[in-house]
Design goal:
phosphoprotein; mainly alpha; Globin-like; transport; about 150 residues; cytoplasm; 6 helices; iron
């Protein structure tokens, strides 16, 4: 079964909830660094800070990550596949030293952050929609890395 309109709608609505509160970006990176402290150096806006400090660059990067997952949901619903809009994403991830376990950590952080942003709207269906959309994006990035 393909990605449904309902799944796309779930991702879109929770994406809007995420964007409304900048603290979710800090939460996202906090979860990543709790799981993978060594990943701190991969993010230029974090590597020289004592911890996760809110900044315009952090906000922009988090919105970009979550936005790409949202775009993946739209693409999956429309065409059944994810095509990267930014052709350099593979090279950037290679340059930063991203490996498969990093994708798992980011997925977990993304889901925990969306759960927090969604509040009482969180459901298994919402989780699955984000998981499928993220997996589509991760697959496209990994393909671009090979």
């Amino acid at each position: 079964m393909g990605f449904t309109q309902q799944q796309e709608a779930l991702v879109n609505s929770s994406w809007e909830s995420f964007k409304q509160n900048p603290s979710y970006s800090v939460l996202f990176y906090t979860i990543i660094l709790e799981k993978a402290p060594a990943a701190k150096g991969m993010f230029s806006f974090l590597k020289d800070s004592a911890g996760v400090v809110d900044s315009p660059k952090l906000q922009a990067h988090a919105e970009q990550v979550f936005g790409m997952v949202r775009d993946s949901a739209i693409q999956l619903q429309a065409t059944g596949e994810v095509v990267l809009k930014n052709g350099s994403l593979g090279a950037i991830h290679i340059q930063k030293g991203v490996v498969d376990p990093h994708f798992v950590v980011v997925k977990e952080a993304l889901l925990k952050t969306i759960k927090e942003a969604s509040g009482d709207k969180w459901s298994e269906e919402l989780s699955i929609a984000w998981e499928v959309a993220y997996d589509g994006l991760a697959t496209a990035i990994k393909k671009a890395m090979s």
